[in-house]
Amino acid sequence: MAVLTFRRATPLGAVSALVGWHRRRTVRFLGWADDGAALTSSRAAGYLVMRVGVGLVGVLVLALLAYGLFAVVAAVASWLFDVRLTVLDPDQGDGLTTPEVLAMVPLGAVLLYLDLMGLVGVGVLDRAAAARWLSPSRSERLEAQVESLTVSRAELLAALDAERGRIERDLHDGVQQRAVALGLLVNRARRGVGPDSSGALLLEQAAREAELLVTDLRDVAWRVRPTTLDTHGLAPVLAELVSRSGVPASLEWDSPERLPAAVETTVYYVVAEALTNVAKHSGAQKTKVRIHVGRACRDLSDPTVHVTITDDGVGGAVQRPGHGLAGLSGRVAAAGGTLAVESPAGGPTRIEVTLPCE
After folding, report:
1. Element of type H or E holding 289
2. Which pLDDT belongs to residue 304?
């Protein structure tokens, strides 16, 4: 529905300059904290209208203060020099006497106090006008906080993924190489010992353990973050995940293609965690992973990547705090996506993830 409006989104240049001057003045002289809210026409108009009222009150208070000071000067002049000023009693023929001046001191002090409090009140009203019209609204503050938290969570996940990559490289280039070297040394020792000697059996067992250690290290490094994810993309990594699944699994991806790095990382962890949960908890006989890439990555008409994991297990999967699905949901949300779980008692279980392709 179209709405006809004559309000400008931003005020005129002269209005912006005037409001900007008031903002700087309020920050400098009144200690107001300017949060830098965007200035709109409605805000500028509301602030200037309210500021006119505050200004009129300030002028009235200053006028009363000036009149009071003039009255003090007139009274002192009348008392000391017998000068007759009409600001006092017009019918007074002589100057003020000392008792009359002393009687006026308490009243003058009270009026001066009230006038000074009026000046303080004008400052408070000035700050209130700036806070009402020039500060971000509650919804704007919440939006800024949500945006900040989203960015922080995305940066945290990026740092976590980078740390996973560093750990994988350390395992691959450090611990794994030492395990391989250990296996080579054990094999050399086996060749130097007679087959009938007492240590031959122990060396053979040590060689098998070294081979298993290397295999386990490779598996751990691959699960932390596979190197091929960066070098060859998501398709071969998912194929490897499916082949290693504890439950027979199939992968359906009509046209595998490279996706943005952040999207590939998220999809990898989604599929890896889902297959792990299926193997541990579902009691399923088979599972299926389906990847559908919208046309977003090609012509921006559908900027989404859809990941669906289904199994024929017992169902009953729920997102509980501290469990795999809850952590997975947080990772997907940090990437700007959504995760939905359908898992009725008795199965089947369906996990559907939608991610922006950007």
Report:
1. strand 287-293
2. 84
